Amino acid sequence: MTSGHREPIPVSILTGFLGSGKTTLLNRLLQDDALSDAAVIINEFGEIGIDHLLVETADDNVFEMASGCLCCTIRGDLVDTLADLIRRRDDGTVNAFNRVIIETTGLADPAPVLHTLMNQPFLLQRYRLEGVICTVDAVNGLVTLDAHEESVKQAAVADRLVITKADLLSGIDGEDQLHAVIGRLRKLNPGARQLEATTGEATPQALFNTGLYDPQSKSVDVRRWLAVDAYEVQARPARRGRRKSRSEDADHADGHSDHGHAHDVNRHDDHIRSFSVTSDAAISVWGFELFAELLRSYHGPNLLRLKGIVKLEDDPERPMVVHGVQHIFHPPARLDKWPDDDRRTRMVFITRDIAQAELEQLFKAFTDPVRGGAEAFRDDTLSLRRNTD
């Protein structure tokens, strides 16, 4: 901090494939008074239809809109743009925005944006990553997910999934297709809340404040942030004779039945796995560092996202919060106490071609008192190298 305490400004990433409606959603959101003190970062003004937002004044690449919020283009790279915005805020040359929204291009992998916010010391002081919002087209979403790996990654790392253009679907076939989209997204990313744009569900109140920090309670909300229950429910086998829920019907309809929509048997999201790993045992700080290093070294590109709260041996009453995207990990934070009565290590993973059992075994190797950390490190390193080769 440069002077005194400054509460970091929340940053949300808005992503979605070409034509999925993210610019339309952003335009509507910026009309809401809740975002009158927001700053929006886009790649080109032409993409957002800036003329429709009634620009009041323009200063170089920063535009002040009639609603009060700011909009600017990425200058050079994202680090420079974010640093320039915060300096101008400190200088009083732009409005004192209290939130940042970054709109990615339709073909963008959101991971590099997440890396920027998790790995730059200056940005870590002044900004905090809040969450990822992803738009999915109800009409073309299934075909897009089949054809484009980028769209799968966008949806897989999201904290909120906004289904757009559902009003363009009609009849029984349209309802079946909407259920198929819902089910496929739930299977791909069970921890993300789904909202339909055309029903008015995608409000600022529903889309933002999704991070670890809850501004209303002024404390961390690990349970909401992790959403472990969603991953555990997905992994639980269905009971015989139990009537299927709407979500299970949707899962059945998303390419594993004869509902009439053909899917590529090698579709991209068949490689994506979402699961949770839990443990009652504490792990040493050294052991977790080795565990994280193995993840980065051998699985980095395929570790799409990791979020967790970890019990440590040196002080089991002060857990550590971890957040990783591929090979980049946010600096871990120790909490003063457990945020709830559940004192287990809880980690949720979204991976590509990494089995749950493999990560469970690897983590257990560092918490099993029978096998020491050094022995586990050696054995699992050799095992991972054989699997990689």
Furnish the topology, listing elements before pairings:
Elements: E1 9-16, H1 22-29, E2 38-42, H2 45-48, E3 55-59, E4 62-65, E5 70-73, H3 78-91, E6 99-103, H4 111-119, H5 121-126, E7 127-137, H6 141-147, H7 149-156, E8 160-164, H8 171-188, E9 193-196, H9 204-207, E10 213-214, E11 219-220, H10 222-226, H11 228-235, H12 246-253, E12 272-279, H13 285-299, E13 303-310, E14 320-325, E15 328-329, E16 333-334, E17 345-352, H14 356-365, H15 373-388
Parallel strand pairs: 1-6, 1-7, 2-5, 2-6, 7-8, 8-9
Antiparallel strand pairs: 3-4, 4-5, 10-11, 12-17, 13-14, 13-17, 14-15, 14-16
Helix pairs in contact: 6-7, 8-12, 13-15
How would you describe this structure to a colleague?
It is built from 15 helices and 17 strands. The radius of gyration is 22 Å and the shape is globular. It has 389 residues and is an alpha/beta fold. The chain has a nine-stranded mixed β-sheet, sandwiched between helices. It has two domains: 220 residues, 3-Layer(aba) Sandwich (Rossmann fold), CATH 3.40.50.300; 109 residues, Hypothetical Protein Yjia, Chain: A,domain 2, CATH 3.30.1220.10.
List the main descriptive attributes of the protein structure presented here:
single chain, six-stranded antiparallel beta sheet, Rossmann fold, 2 domains, 15 helices, Hypothetical Protein Yjia, Chain: A,domain 2, about 400 residues, alpha/beta, about 35% helix, nine-stranded mixed beta sheet
